[in-house]
Amino acid sequence: MPLSRSRSLVFTFTAVAILGLTIFTLNPLRNGALRSTSSITSKKISTLISSIPASFSKPEKSSEYAFVAFLEGSGDEESEDAEEEEDGYYTATRVLGYQLLHAPSTRSPHIPFLLLTTNVSSHRRTRLQNDGFTVLPIAPIPDPDWLHTSSHYHNIMTKLRVFELTNYTKLLYLDSDMLITRPLHGIFADPATTITPILENATTIPGEAPLPTSYMLAAQAQQTAREHPYPPLQSQTWFCSGFFLFAPSTQLFTYYAALLTSPGKFTPDYPDQNLLNYAHRPEGPMPWTRFNYTWTTTFPTIREYEAGAASLHEKYWLEEYRTKELGQDVLGGMWLGVKREMEEFYGE
């Protein structure tokens, strides 16, 4: 068999299987029964799930709600520890944890912060646990052969495993590159975050996995330039997967998994974001909903900060994002100030 065909078959029988990791623990009252109109047979799904690796241990639930993030390391213990100060995403993850768990002006008491990790050194995992994270090492989801994307997004589909955390009612996923300006726990009560049935008479598209009967995914439109309308326009229908609130569901997990084996369903330039946008497209059976626009913003400016945006999504550890354009130097300086506060808090 040609190597390329062999690799494709391996991915089909493993990547989808990983995503279906905890389907047997499904809570039918929360997630609903599977629709039976799919052309993907239950036998085929069972075959795909049969090669699942050992599941990661779910945390003991201390709240109905939680924050959750994803961090991938290099897999090299020595290089990670030697380059600790140069790893922007690792440092940003710690700064985000400090903001949500400890900083007096932005923390959310009693809301745990779950951190899914792959290939992160044991030293770093220990430090993150000491910071207050609930660290959950997981197996990565490999990229399918057809998903030709930049190295920046290597194994990015692994973050979809947050949908496995079905012992929580609602989770807020956040990318690490965030400046938080006020507590976020109020977002869990936003009217847009109600778990709802899928659209009436919705049927599964041939070749896709069965649809759940209910779901919830709330987000905000992705801005594409520094100059942009705020609030976002209703005509902006592409949402950002770096800050979204959702109801965990292994049925959705399996649905997303099937999409990974179907080239052409979404473009690979923003892999996870485009997959989720296809699954929750406005004209589809599970359209995404909009929480209040002041909870977050992308391509942030000082204008959004002054308007009360609770989270500003930008890589402020990089000097190129701390220019004077529209107040980026002010916002970047604020993030660096929080980083110094974190280091003082931990005695570093």
Task: Explain what this protein looks like in three dimensions.
With 348 residues, the protein is of the alpha/beta class. Helix 9 (302-306) links the parallel strand 11 (297-298) and strand 12 (311-313). The protein has helices at residues 3-19, 28-31, 42-49, 77-82, 88-101, 122-131, 250-260, 271-279, 302-306, 328-345; strands at residues 65-72, 113-118, 134-137, 170-174, 178-180, 196-197, 214-215, 217-219, 243-246, 289-290, 297-298, 311-313.
Task: Label this structure with key terms.
alpha/beta, disordered N terminus, seven-stranded mixed sheet
On the 0-100 scale, what is the average pLDDT?
83
Global geometry: globular
Question: What does the largest sheet look like?
Answer: 7 strands, mixed
Question: Percentage of helical residues?
Answer: 25-40%
Tell me the total number of β-strands.
12
Strand ordering within the main sheet: 3-2-1-4-9-8-10
Distance between the termini: 55 Å
Helix/strand structural class: alpha/beta
Strand content: 5-15%
Number of helical stretches of at least 4 residues = 10
Poorly predicted ranges: 1-54
Rg over CA atoms: 20 Å
Any chance you could write out the topology, listing elements then pairs?
Layout: H1 3-19, H2 28-31, H3 42-49, E1 65-72, H4 77-82, H5 88-101, E2 113-118, H6 122-131, E3 134-137, E4 170-174, E5 178-180, E6 196-197, E7 214-215, E8 217-219, E9 243-246, H7 250-260, H8 271-279, E10 289-290, E11 297-298, H9 302-306, E12 311-313, H10 328-345
Parallel strand pairs: 1-2, 1-4, 2-3, 8-10, 11-12
Antiparallel strand pairs: 4-9, 5-12, 6-7, 8-9
Helix pairs in contact: 1-3, 1-7
